[in-house]
Design a protein that fits this description.
Layout: H1 3-11, E1 22-24, H2 30-34, H3 38-43, H4 45-58, E2 63-65, H5 76-79, E3 84-86, E4 94-96, H6 101-105, H7 119-133, E5 142-146, H8 148-156, H9 158-167, H10 169-192, E6 199-203, H11 212-228, E7 234-239, H12 247-250, E8 257-260, H13 266-272, E9 277-282, H14 284-289, H15 293-307, E10 312-316, H16 326-336
Parallel strand pairs: 1-2, 5-6, 6-7, 7-8, 8-9, 9-10
Antiparallel strand pairs: 3-4
Helix pairs in contact: 8-9, 8-10, 9-10, 10-11, 15-16
Length: 338
Amino acid sequence: MSPWERFVVVARGGRADRVPVALIVDSPWLPGYAGIDTLDYFLRPDEWLRINLDLSDRFPEVAWIPGFWVEYGMAAEPSAFGARVVWHHDQAPSIEPVPGGLAVLAGMEPPDPQRHGLMPLVLQRYADSERRLLPQGLKVQMVAARGPFAVAAWLLGVSEFLIALKVEPEASGRLLDALTATTIAWLRAQLDVLRAPEGILVLDDIAGMLSPAMFKQFARPRFSRIFGEFGGLIKAFHNDTPCAHLARPMATLGFDVFNFSHTMDIADLQTKMPGIALMGNIPPLDAMARGTPAAVAAWAHECVQKTGGRGLILSAGGGVSPGTPPEAIDALVQAAGG
């Protein structure tokens, strides 16, 4: 089985020939790994393609999620709402909150992915990239979008957004509705430019910061709507905020794969989220970026032991952190094989 086939089998509730290894990688890690300026990574399509192709050659047993990801850090969705993007040579771009805050944003209509912000550039890059990948027998398997709570936090600031949920629930709800529609439209636009994608990835750490009551009020209906729109596709959810208190309600949202914080016990999570493939649970910073290969292997073996290898996709407990050495990934692959 190929790495992607293993990922698909486990995501759909089956058991592969070995425990899959899958990693979320993007612009915070890849330019440094490849020794290239971050702006060159974004602006030079040949270099971007070379770097992403090299991953499969260097790590042939890893499924890259979403794989050949065309992204500008967190900037695509916020840029379509007027947020100012700040570019850097040595890290992914940062986002400045929109002046005027919720009073301005609550009345905005969802943007058009074909016309607004950086989204049209991403779509064009996807179309061009797949034209170059298909002759090599390759394709883009998944597309990705930030969830509505993550985007709201970039547009307003994290603290300001969380306070607004409490003190201005109606206006916050209107903004979240527009952002939910944006997430769906953005995923659909990406799917539509590709030949035969098989899955979606939604990333939203901010939802994990809510209380159970606020999650039920604000998050559950909107995420259920998002995941419900994409029947037949593999649906993965990334939230690496420690949120064990939300495990049971999150399990009802309709996703197939959960990438979560390494601080959450994987055995407890397996009990609370039956039927969902767990993608983790190696500490991305302390073990993979700063630790030793032996530490990575020990964490991996513990994950296998606690889950019995069932419904497990070995990964970092989040995305791959900047500075993660190749040897850490090698250790993870070796641990998965035995």
